[in-house]
Amino acid sequence: MTILYLILPLALVLAGGAVAAFIWTVRSGQLDDVDTPPYRILFDDEGARPSHRSRRRSRARG
Amino acid sequence: MATAARAPSEAICLHCSLPVPAGRRSPFCCAGCEVVHGAIAAHGLDQFYALRDAPAPAHTTEHAYTELDDPAFHRLHVRRAPSGQATASLYLEDLRCGACVWLVENAPRCVPGVTGIRVDLGRSRADVAWDPSVTSLSAIARHLDRIGHPPHPYRGLEREALRRREDRALLVKLGVAGAAAGNIMLLAIALYAGMFDGMSLGDTGFFRWASMCVAVPALGFAATPFFRTAIGALRARRLHLDLPLSIGIVAGLVWGTANVVRGVGEIYFDSLAMLVFLLLVARWIVLRHQRRASTAAELLLSLTPSRAHRLEGGREIDVPIEAIAPGDVVRVLAGEVVPVDGEVIAGRTAFDVGLLTGESQPIDVGPGASAHAGTLNLAAAVEIRATAVGEATRVGKLVAGIAALSTRAPIERLVDRVAGRFVAIVSSAAALTLLGWSVRSVALGAEHAMALLIVTCPCALALATPLAVTVALGRAARRGVLIKGADALERLATPGTMFVDKTGTLTAGKLAVVSWRGDLDAAGLAAAIEAGSSHPIARALRAHAPPTGVALDVHEELGRGIRATIGGREVLVGAPPWVRQRCSSQPVMEGWIAELAERGETPIAIACDGAMIAIAGLADPIRADAAGALDQLTRLGWTVHLLSGDDVRVARRVGAALGVPVARCHGAVSPEDKVAAVVAARAHGPAVMVGDGVNDAAALAAASAGIAVSGAAEIAIEAADVYLRSPSIGEIAATAAGAQATLATIRRNLRFSLVYNIVAGGLAMTGVIHPLIAAAVMPLSSLTVLASSLRSKAFRP
Q1: Is-contact B647 B602, C-beta < 8 A?
Q2: For B618, which DSSP code?
Q3: Kind of pairing, strands B561-566 and B551-557?
C-alpha cells in the first residue's frame, strides 16, 4: 500500500487546485449573478459577428 | 410584416399577445405596441419573439431623457475609464425573461457607440459602457425606452458593492469548507474501515496526519465568521449561539491535533468539517433570501423621479433633480411629484400632501402658496420657485432623521438565550466528567470531557433558526410579503401595540363619494359637469356615476366650484358657500351639509336652475379588507391604535367603522408625534408601526418592527422591515400570524436539537461515545430539524 503515500498527497493537491479555481471564479464575480447566464447561453451569437448576419437572417425568413 | 392587413376581431396583438380591439386596422392592440414592435423590427431583432416565454410589455414613455446628459447627473452616476469610455448602471423596467435580456444586450448593434451592455436579470439592472465621443447616455436611454424597457438611474450602488463583498467572502468560505468536508470524509471512511478490518499503524498515522493537514487550515479559515461573532459577544458580555459553536470547533481542532501528534485517541475532524459546512450553507441560504427581499424593495427606490423641468428664459429644460439650485424656477406637471421646497409663482392646482403629512384632503394652491418636495401635483401644471433643495427640504430633513432612528438595538434572540443556558450546562457537565473520570485517570477524564464538548457542539441548534426563517421568508415572498431581515420575524412574533396609519393604509388614500343626500339623478349631472376637470373632487364625482348629458360653456373656479349648462339647464357644483352665493338653499340642505361636515366628510353642493338639489359627501373610503385585518390582529393579541394626520373627528369616524375604541384613535398627529407614540409604547413591550407615507417613515424606523403597505413612499419602504407588495392589507395580520408560526417552529426545532445534545452528551459523560456515532447522529439531527422546518405552518397559502 505504499502507493498511498504518493496518491493521497496528489489527490489533496488536485482538490486544492479545484478550491483555488473556485475562489478565482468567486473573486472575479462570475457567481454574482446566477439568474441571467442560463438564458444567455441560448442566444445565437448573431450580434457578436455581424458578418454572419445576412446569411442567418435569410435562413430565418426562408 | 403585414402591417396593413386587417386584423379579425379575435386577433391577438403581434407584440403583447393581448386581444386586438374590434375595428382596429392593425395587428397591434395599441399604439404603444406598434412603436415597440417597429423599433424591434427596424433593428432586425425579430428573434425576440421566438425567444420570449412571457408576453412582452408594451411600456414606452417616449421621453427624451436629456437630463441623463447633464453634468450634474454624470458626476453622480457615470464612471469614466482612463481610456475615455464611460459606464453607468441603469435600472430597467419590465425585465422578465431571457428574451428581454437578449433584446437589451443587442443594444450595441442598434446604437453606434455602445461598447457593451450586460444585464443582471435578478436585479433588473443593466451595466452600460459607451464611447462618449460617439453617442450619449440619453440616446442609449431612448433606445431602451423604445424597445419597452424605460431606464432609470440605479440607486444604491455603494450598498450593493458592500453586499457583494460580503456575499463573495461567505461563498469562498462555503467552498473551502465543502471541499474540506468532502476530502476529510473520504479519509475518515478509510479510517473507519481500517478500524474493523485492521490497518497497519503506519497507514493509520498517515491518514490521521493527512486529515489534520486538511482540517486545521481549512476549518480555521472557514469558521472565522463564528469565531468573530463569539469574540464580539464575549466582549459585549452578551450570549450568542456562536459561542458554544466556537468552543466545540476549537476544542475539536486542538484535541484532534494533540491526538494526531500523540498517535493515540480519537479525532473528530470529519464531524467538525461537516458541521462547519452545514452551518455555512444555512447562513448562505438565509442571506440569499434576505437579499432578494431587500433588493426587491429597494429597486422601487430607483423609480423615484430623478428629473425636473427647469425654466430657463422661457424654455423648459429637463435636468436631474441634483442640478436644481435655490432660486431656480421649475415646472411641475399634473401627476408629477414636486421636486423642491418652494413657492408657487404661477398656476393654480391641488396638491396631495398625504404622503408628507398624512392629511387625506387635497389642498388647493395658487400663486404665493408654499409647496413641499414629496407632494403630488394633482390638477394642473404650476411653476414653483425653489427655496430649498435636496437635504434642506422638509422631506430631506425627515429622511436624515430616519437614518439616526433606524439603528435598532439588537434583540436578544430566542436561540441566543437558549445558547446561554446551553454553555453553562455543557461546561459544568464537562467539568463534572473531568473530575469523575480523574478518579481512574486524568488522561481519560480529559479525553471524555473533550469528547463531550465536541459531540454537543450545537449544530442542529444553530440550524434551528435559519431553516425555519428561510422557509418563512421564501413562502412570505411568494405571497407578496417582503421581509428584509430574519430579526423582523422574531420582533413581530410577540404581540404588543400596533400603530396603524390611517391615510393610505386603512383607507384608499384618495377621495371618493361616500354619501349622497337629495336628488339621486343629480349625480349624473355632477359627473357630466366635471368631465373635463382633473381636480380630485371631479375625479371622485366622475367615478361615482355615469354622466348624463354634455356640459357646455364650462367655467371652473379652482378651489371653489364649477358652472356649466347641461341640456339647457344651468348647473353648479362646488363648495357649499360658493354655491350658496349663487342660488337659493333650503334648511334641509343646510342640515345635510352640517351633518356631513360633522362626520368628517367634505360636503359638495349640486345646484340646478338656481336651487340646491343634492349634497355629496366626499371622504377617503376605508379599504374593504381593513376591518377584517384589524379584527384578526386583535384576536392574535395585538392592541391596535389608529394614527392620522387628519382631524381627530375623521380619525374617530374611521375608528368607529373599524371597531377601534375612541381612546385609541389619535387625530392631527404630526410625524414627530408618531415617533413619540411609538417610542413611548416600546417602553412597555413590542410596538409595531404600519404605514405608507413619508410622515410615517420615522415612526417605522423607531418601532420594534415597521411594516410598509403597498403603494408606500420610497422612504417608508426603506425604513420598514416588512413591505407588503400585494394591495390587500389583510396581509398585515397574515404577517403577524406567520411570524408567530415561525417562532413556534423555531421552538420545536430547538427542542429536537436539545434532545439530541442531551443524548450525545450523556453518552460522552459515560465514556461510550464513538466518533462514528457522533458522525452519524449529527447529520441525522440536522435532517430532523430540516423536516420540522418544512412542515411549518408559517405563511402557508
Answers
A1: no
A2: E
A3: antiparallel
From the centroid of its chain, how far is CA B226? Answer: 29
B619 burial class (0-12, 13-18, 19+ CB within 10 angstroms)? buried
Q: What are phi and psi of A16, to 5 degrees?
A: -60, -40
Of B730, B480, B725, B712, the closest CA to residue B627 belongs to B730
In chain B, which residue's Cα lies nearest the Cα of A1? B203
**Nearest Cβ partner of B172 from A26, A36, A39?**
A26
d(CA A59, CA B18): 29
Phi first, then psi, for residue B642 (nearest 5°) are -110, 125
CB atoms within 10 A of CB B552: 10
**pLDDT by residue (tens digit) across B436-491?**
888 888 888 888 888 888 878 777 788 888 888 888 888 888 888 888 777 888 88
- Chain B residue numbers touching A38 (CB-CB < 8 A): 98
* Residue pair B520/B546 in contact by the 8 Å Cβ criterion: no
* Chain A residue closest in CA terms to B288: A32
pLDDT digits (tens, 9 = 90+) for B167-198: 999 999 999 999 999 999 999 988 888 877 77
The CA distance from B172 to the nearest CA of chain A, in Å, is: 6
Which site among A3, A28, A30, A36 would you substitute to test the B interface, given the most B Cβ atoms closer than 10 Å to its Cβ?
Answer: A36
Interface of B to A at Cβ within 8 Å reads 44, 46-47, 51, 97-98, 101-102, 105-106, 108-109, 119-123, 164, 167-168, 171-172, 175-176, 179, 182-183, 200, 203, 206-207, 210, 213-214
**Closest C-alpha among B354, B358, B346, B181 to residue B268:** B181
Residue B764 vs residues B276, B297, B445, B455: alpha-carbon distances, Å: 21, 49, 11, 8
CA distance A54 to chain B (A): 10
Among B148, B155, B34, residue whose Cα is nearest residue B102: B148
Cβ pair A53:B44 closer than 8 A: yes
Of B44, B122, B179, nearest to A15 by CB-CB distance is B179
Contacts 24+ apart (CB under 8 A), B285-292: B285/B466, B285/B470, B286/B466, B286/B469, B286/B470, B286/B473, B286/B486, B287/B166, B287/B167, B287/B170, B289/B469, B289/B470, B289/B473, B289/B474, B289/B477, B290/B473, B290/B483, B290/B484, B290/B485, B290/B486, B291/B163, B291/B167, B292/B122, B292/B477
Query: A50 to chain B: nearest residue by CA?
Result: B109
Per the CB < 8 Å rule, is A22 touching B105? no
| Residue B265 phi, psi (nearest 5) | 95, 165
Rounded average pLDDT over B107-114: 85
Complex confidence, ipTM: 0.76
**Which ranges constitute the DSSP H helices of B52-156?**
71-77, 98-105, 107-110, 137-146
Contacts of B521 (CB under 8 A, 6+ apart): B548
Which pLDDT belongs to residue B172?
A: 95
In terms of DSSP H, where are the helices of B599-719?
626-635, 648-658, 671-682, 694-702, 714-719
Length of chain A: 62
B694/B398 Cα distance (integer angstroms): 8
Q: What is the pLDDT of residues B572-615, one digit of tens each?
A: 898 888 888 888 878 888 888 888 888 778 889 999 888 888 99
Mutation for testing the A interface, residue in B95, B96, B119 having most A CBs under 10 Å: B119
**Is the whole-model pTM more than 0.95?**
no
* Contact at CB, B175 and A46, closer than 8 angstroms: no
**Residue B507: φ, ψ to 5°:** -110, 170
- Contact across the interface for A47 and B210, Cβ inside 8 Å: no
